[in-house]
Amino acid sequence: MEGDYINGSDLLLKAGGKAVGHCSSHTITFNTETKERAVKPLASLAKSKGMWKGKGVSGMSISISFEGLRFYDETENGYEEIAAKWGAGAKLEVEAFHRSKDKEPYVKGTFVIDSLEEVSPAQDDATYSGQLSNDGEPEVYPGKETVALAE
Questions:
Q1: Which of 23, 64, 87, 145 could cysteine-pair with 68, CB 3.0–4.6 Å?
Q2: 11-15/54-69 β-pairing
């Protein structure tokens, strides 16, 4: 498949050591908190130089949302399993990886369950969705090697 577009079904999500059951989609969001800094320009510079604010990163986080179908004979981490983990206030080891490279996750770390929702419409498939957020610095994320080299 090299040189082809990545199919969403090739990108998988594990939570608590097992795949998120009957997952129909997941979204990973890399969040950045920033702060602005405004300084007075040097007296020798034009006043307009002080109109441009500098910006710095003050915090980073990763959030993951997922959606799946409820299934009676679930063997992966479906709604029932994830709901029990939510009820226990459990932290989950989470991995996002490419199906053909399952030994090399592109995101891996400890996450908490921020929310879990079940939707059960009449005469239609029951679904569930959830929201996870990192607890501390993840073990693996895009650019982590660059951060480690800069330290």
A1: 23
A2: unpaired
